[in-house]
Design brief:
Blueprint lengths: L2 E2 L7 E3 L2 E2 L12 H11 L12 E2 L15 E4 L12 H13 L4 E6 L2 H8 L8 E6 L7 H7 L5 E6 L16 E5 L11 H14 L3 E5 L5 H4 L29
Amino acid sequence: MATKSSIEWTESTWNPLTGCDKISPGCKHCYAERMAKRLKAMGQYNYRNEFALTLHPHALELPLGWKQPQMIFVNSMSDLFHERVPESYIQQVFATMRRAEWHQFQVLTKRSKRLREMSGRIDWPVNVWMGVSVESSKYKVRIADLQMTPAKVRFLSLEPLIGDLGTLDLQGIDWVIVGGESGPGARPIQSEWVLEIQRQCAAAMVPFFFKQWGGVNKKRSGRELNGRTYDELPRRINAPRRERSAFVVL
């Protein structure tokens, strides 16, 4: 059975590697790092190294056994394009995604330079959505790196949004997710930042997904914007939404 997720924009998670290193301000209060500590304390073998980068070859082909088509977030507990992940291992992850053609896979990275450098050597399947995280205007170069890849679906995760992004180049972008930071030490998000992104998406006809306002208690803050929720998905592949259960990680 696939590993169900409570992340609003996906259905399941798959972690053929775990652990990471902080590379920009968006990583300051990393939820995955907190989660890894908890999972190690619970005795979960995959987290025996806590949040140190660890490859899990035994998990490489797990999605092939998940027969129900679904949207799968790849490496919710790491970054596939981390500089210490061998290219051969990244290629194995893509090989599994190509074989599991009945699923939609969502890959997200902050390491856009390596993504761009490798993109020409990747056989991009139509069922892989490639995205980059951008938390402030300083890191908009990640968008340009993503636009240079031949990924069939390209998306932006503007989360945790900790600054005004100004004008966005949405050429070739199929989806935009926005969210505030949540949990201990959460930095505030400004409504005008979100409203401006939503306005630009509407003008460019790019689907917009507002995940959350965030804060210490994200449930209390909610996820309504302009009196409604925004759950738009890419037009190219509008996969059905299904019921989700509690967040569990492999």
